[in-house]
Amino acid sequence: MQPKHLPDHDFRVLIGNDACSKPYNASLYNISAMSFGALSANAIESLNRGAKMGGFAHDTGEGGISRYHRTGGGDLIYEIGSGYFGCRNPDGSFSPDRFAEQAADDQVKMIEIKLSQGAKPGHGGMLPASKITPEIAEARGIPMGADCLSPAAHSAFSCPTGLMEFIATLRERSGGKPVGFKLCIGHRREFMCMVKAMLETGIVPDFIVVDGKEGGTGAAPLEFANHVGMPLVEGLSFVHNTLRGAGIRDQVRIGAAGKLITAFDIARAFALGADWANSARGFMFALGCIQSQSCHTNRCPVGVATQDKLRQRALYVPDKAERVARFHGNTMKALAEMAGAAALDDPGRFRPRHFMQRGPDGEMVEGDDAFPYLPEGFLIAGEGGDADYRKRWARASATSFAPPD
Ligand SMILES: Cc1cc2nc3c(=O)[nH]c(=O)nc-3n(C[C@H](O)[C@H](O)[C@H](O)COP(=O)(O)O)c2cc1C
Ligand code: SF4
Question: Cα(139) to centroid of ligand 2, in Å?
């Protein structure tokens, strides 16, 4: 009954806690990780130019920072996967010095450690030698003529406290830029191990990006996609409430990805605890993807997901960069209207109570009942909140991901 008109729709969230000296004022909607290699040069360049025009961020994906990420001058989130592309030694291990060189670039605003992605959690990847062009080799820091492996697990750390120490190293080596990680929730206890490690080491990431199992990919085994990992709604609510239970929710920003294409999708993610949203396939559609699902064949008909120079000519960068910026701008405008309709000044203020969902018996369920915010600090106090959370928390260890029994 009290709708508002929000004149501005350039919504922002400041990412970076007390340990970070260069916080980033991010848009509430950004381009999710997609590598050069999965996407064509023209696609990467259009995304980056669009990000610059619209004032939002472009995640590099785990394939390193290519020359096409740089030409547009748009803000970058540098993603580091288990292959440490762009910051690796010849044997594939992490190189702090190479990392410092990459992270020093002013275009790089944040660092994201990729632990897993929704389409293939716990699964590595391999780029066959035949697909490695000189430009891909340059971006990744790998030789031509040999298959390029992304192992399933990281080699820079192996336990929860090791992950936090790695975060501290990246923060220091990047000169104080925000550092966080991306994952699709699998075993919930393992995420609790990480949170216990945050409390024990005092090293708290600046952000966590939660991917839903419904996430997309350039290449995943068909058996994994849509089946392995937790859907976004449940994973996001779990991460938000675990951080609340541990009393550190205010130190960590949460990003979310997984079919967040419309203003409604984004508003719902905010209600469940996200501070910002990412989209991969939404921006692919802006580039002209027609969902022919032939990304893996190198024969993308619209030049989005191919390394074939001739096919890439189908994607005209100046036109698509504008479309990328317009998709972002119009989605934010719709989000402003939706927040205004709910009498909110900012879409970040959506809460579960603004939504209802239909339960299995057909009855409407209040958002607050379906996805309640659990009390601050209940995991530390050992009482209140949710008994299932407390039981799992008791089994989590800061020093090992292995189950206690
Ligand atoms: C073509 C393509 C390539 C991707 N590459 C990466 C990657 O390099 N690193 C990563 O963390 N996620 C990657 N993803 C996953 C997305 O970043 C995102 O988390 C997921 O697709 C969910 O978002 P969406 O539903 O908006 O696509 C990729 C997705 C697509 C479609
Ligand atoms: S048009 Fe087809 S091949 Fe090209 S990106 Fe879209 S789904 Fe992949």
Answer: 23
